[in-house]
Amino acid sequence: MPKCACPCKGPAAWYGLALGVIVLDQLSKWWVVENLAYASTRTVTGFFDWVFVFNRGAAFSFLAGADGWQRWFFTALALGVAAWIGVALWKGPRERLLSWSLTLIMGGALGNVIDRLRFGAVVDFIQVHAGSHYWPAFNVADSAITLGAILLAWDQLRKKPVQ
Questions:
Q1: Can you tell me the distance from the alpha carbon of 55 to that of 51, in angstroms, rounded to the nearest whole number?
Q2: DSSP letter at 121?
C-alpha cells in the first residue's frame, strides 16, 4: 500500500479537517436558520434554490415519518460510525484517499448529529431541480458524507484484489 504523501500526516490533521467540515456545515445552517423563513424557498438559479426544512429522517427523508425514535437511532448510529472512523484515523491509515473519505464521512456525520441534538432534526437547505424533478433537499454535511462515500468506493474499486 502506498504511504500517505500529503501534508496531512497523523490523526490530528485528519481530525482538523473533519472539524473544518463541521464548522462549515454549522455556519451554513446558522445562516439558513437566521435568514430564511421555515419552509420558504429562495430561487438562486433555474436549477438551484435555497430552502429551509427540517429532516427528521435520514438521507432522502428515509423514516422521516416515524414517531420520534429515529432521532436517537440516527444519532447513535452516526456517533458509532464517527467513533469507529476516529479510531481508524488514530491508528493511521496510510492511504491518502482512504483518509480523505473517512474524514469527510466523519465530519458530515457529526455535523448532522449536532442538528439532531439541537433541533431534533437536521437542517436541510440546498435544493436542486431539473424542470419539475426536484432532488430532496440536503446540506453541507450530507454533501461531505456523499463525497466521502464516493471516494471510499473509488478507493476500494481501484485496488487490486489480494490473491
A1: 12
A2: S
pLDDT digits (tens, 9 = 90+) for 53-66: 999 877 666 656 65
Contact assessment for residue 152 and residue 101, using Cβ atoms and an 8 Å cutoff: yes
Catalytic residue among 25, 49, 115, 142: 142
Q: Which of 25, 49, 115, 124 is catalytic?
A: 124
Is 142 considered catalytic here? yes
**Strands of the chain, DSSP E:** 41-43, 48-55, 122-130, 133-134
**Spatial separation of the C-alpha atoms in residues 101 and 149, rounded to whole Å:** 6
Any idea how long the chain is? 163
Write the DSSP string, 58-70: SGGGTTTTS-SHH
* Residues sharing a CB contact under 8 Å with residue 99, sequence separation 6 or more, in sequence order: 4, 8, 14, 89, 93
DSSP letters of 82-103? HHHHHHHHHH----HHHHHHHH
Q: Are 59 and 44 in contact (CB under 8 A)?
A: no
What is the pLDDT, as a whole number, of residue 161?
72
pTM above 0.85, yes or no: yes
108/77 Cα distance (integer angstroms): 13
